[in-house]
Amino acid sequence: MVVFIMEQLQIPYEVKSIRFDDVKKKPLIDVNPNGRVPVIEDPNTGLTLWESGAIITYLIKQYDSNHTISYDTFPEEHLLNQFLHFQMSGQGPYYGVAGWFIHLHPEKVPSAIDWYTKQVRRVLGVLEGLLEGKQWLVGNKMTYADMAWVPWNDRVDTSLGVPDSNKFDGFPNVKAWHERMTSLPSWKRSMELREKLMDEQGLMWNGIPKGIKNFQEYEAKIKAESDGNPQ
Questions:
Q1: Cβ-based neighbour number of residue 8 at 10 Å
Q2: What is the mean pLDDT of the chain?
């Protein structure tokens, strides 16, 4: 999401790639005690910042003075903030936990899968209604409010446990909106970079190393290596 924003605004940046099994270690926890990515270190201002929403808000304020993907008018400015917060509270948590119970949890919990996939569909339904007769969430142009939703929506098939081709079934407005977003050169460049970095680390699309069957096997591998017994 952060790289997508920077690509769209043409902000020069350098990526420091961190392996999943190193996110709770130095040097990352020196800049983000919570041990999560993304984190930015801006040499122009000396600011170190973590949490995607906070980073996006900062990048817009600091580097979108021409309001290419934002507004400074009322009420659009506040509606942008509203949809960013909705994404952070309503999309990421539900989509992520649904994907966890479908693909990574050590045992199948049908009630949890059912509840979380229903929440994912509910959020998609909200977006479907909001986009009726519209191309963008706010105003008459693509903004960071639209961009914030793209990464999770791109993998919503994993949060619903359906084939990629069926992930937007029943949500034609969301499908068309998502296709408008993923056709952007900035998105394509972001995905090319992601693929390159993951391949360099020997990772599959879900962040698990190639050859590892599931998250539990990956955790066991990490523990063995930390105990000095590489597998």
A1: 21
A2: 92
